[in-house]
Amino acid sequence: MRHRMKRSTVDSAKHNYEIVEQQKQRASRSMSRMFLFWVSQVLGILLSVLTLTWIFKHKNGFTWSSDPKRQFSWHPTFMVIGMVYLFSHGIVIFRIFPEMKKWTLKLIHMGINLTAGAMGGFALYAVIDERNTAGKDHFQSLHSWIGVGALGLFAVQWVGGVLLFLIPCSPKSLRSRAISWHILIGGAIFILSVIAAVTGIKNSAGKGDTEEKTLLNVLGIFLIISLLFHLYVLAKASYRHPSSPPTSRPPFNVRTLDPEAVPLKFWEDSD
User: Fold this and answer.
1) What are the chain's domains?
2) Cα(first)–Cα(last) distance of the chain, in Å?
3) Can you give the pTM of this predicted structure?
4) Half-sphere exposure at residue 116, Cβ-oriented, CA atoms within 13 angstroms
């Protein structure tokens, strides 16, 4: 009898210890996620400030068709703020706020991405109209091809996401299979958006003075830093939303592209 009571006391103490440790781990992860959130904010605000500094200091601000050179200013501004700053938040929001209800996060995710896509679409329209006014040809550079590809893929991804993950009648089995592709394609769109921004900066830097070139180089470096940071957050398995599937990875071996092979742990780590 005494042995049983002693064992029960030990088990209870062990259970209480495990609860305390779990609470400590949750608190630590919560602080870590808030740190990630603020790093993301600082990077996005910094990118926006650098872009606007370039526009107002070296491009004389904004206008429309009365001055095609100043009309062009809408294009880089809305692309950086929309398809880099806002879109980066959209792709990692499930990682940073896991305590929120998933349906609420889905609506926020959809809204952020819709705003980012609308800004990207307006940026594309602005540069097309600017080139029409100036009598220039369209889509002659690698930058333009990558940018249009990113926006086109984004449109398909957004519509597919709404149909699969927001409409209640979509089969659960289909959502489970599609989520890995949704994450993978979202990351690819973000990569393409940053590549488009960097190649656009390269095109603009060749026409400016030394001060402008330096500013654009700094902007390009922080675009790459933002890309690496947000891909890290997206790929970190321990940041997944608690209601996410236990495995969130492409349904094929990344090296062999063989659907029958055991998938690599592309979206998981050893944490």
Assistant:
1) 27-239 (1.20.120.1770)
2) 41
3) 0.78
4) 29
